[in-house]
Amino acid sequence: MEKLSNPQKTIETIKKYQFNFQKKFGQNFLIDEHVISKIINGAGVTKDDFVLEIGPGIGTLTQYLAEAAGEVAAVEIDRKLIPILRETLSEYDNVTIINEDILKVDIRALALEKNGGKPIKVVANLPYYITTPIIMGLFESHVPVDNITVMVQKEVAARMKVGPGSKDYGALSLAVQYYAEPYLVANVPANCFIPRPNVDSAVIRLTRHAGPVVSVDNEKLLFNIIRASFNQRRKTLQNGLKNSDLISASKEDIVEAIREVGLPETVRGEALTLEQFAALANILNKK
């Protein structure tokens, strides 16, 4: 079968099945072979890999993944795409199509069944509204993942990668960097998709850390402090923590902890590194 990276083949397939794009699923189908190659090379996919693809659409990227990987599981929420995927992937016997919401899939069980529990690689083209829940769900549930290579809005990729002091720096930056090393694989202009989205995209690879990058006694407290620090960005760190329902420490303990980390009382959350947040969490955890 002719590859779907050919725009004419994509249009022909969409018309054949009279498929209507659904905004709620953020459906934009990739039609650029050069970008597909960058995704597969960026993820480091080989015949030794089991790849979980989230949101295969009509199977454009899936066709190339099937040729590069040992096995692929493609999870698609839109049932109207399943007949299309059965046709476009019919030549590949190493692809499993799963019609399900990825947030409801037991990925740990899937990795155990398909890959003996060894780390899997995740590839996805994600709509903005679901990006963070999916990525954080994969990390927080401690699914065995080698790396996650995702197509996201360009601004979201910037947030994942950036460090302290930037307006893009926030809870997502810290959460991603706590679990993984972000690497920008490629910027992807809007004309690489059908239909053309209103924003440019980027492919970012998140390679899971082999071990913890910071020593933290209470992971939940760490992330509560991070969230509280950025919920009201204009406030000082001290006031952000004091006014948050997520933090039970007294004002005195918060002030003392900030001082112990060696920070001024007027510091804002956006100035702290992950290491400083971890130090603050460990101090407050003891109070």
Characterization of the model:
This protein has 287 residues and is of the alpha/beta class. The protein has helices spanning 7-16, 33-43, 60-68, 82-88, 107-115, 128-140, 154-161, 171-179, 219-231, 237-242, 251-260, 274-286, and strands spanning 29-30, 50-54, 71-76, 95-99, 120-125, 145-153, 180-188, 193-194, 201-208. The strands form 2 sheets. A 7-stranded mixed beta sheet has the order 4-3-2-5-6-9-7, with helices on both faces. A two-stranded antiparallel sheet has the order 1-8. α6 (128-140) packs parallel to α8 (171-179) and α9 crosses α12. The protein starts with 6 loop residues before the first helix and ends with a helix.
Entry keywords:
287 residues, alpha/beta, seven-stranded mixed β-sheet, two-stranded antiparallel ribbon
Question: What's the SSE blueprint?
Answer:
Elements: H1 7-16, E1 29-30, H2 33-43, E2 50-54, H3 60-68, E3 71-76, H4 82-88, E4 95-99, H5 107-115, E5 120-125, H6 128-140, E6 145-153, H7 154-161, H8 171-179, E7 180-188, E8 193-194, E9 201-208, H9 219-231, H10 237-242, H11 251-260, H12 274-286
Parallel strand pairs: 2-3, 2-5, 3-4, 5-6
Antiparallel strand pairs: 1-8, 6-9, 7-9
Helix pairs in contact: 6-8, 9-12
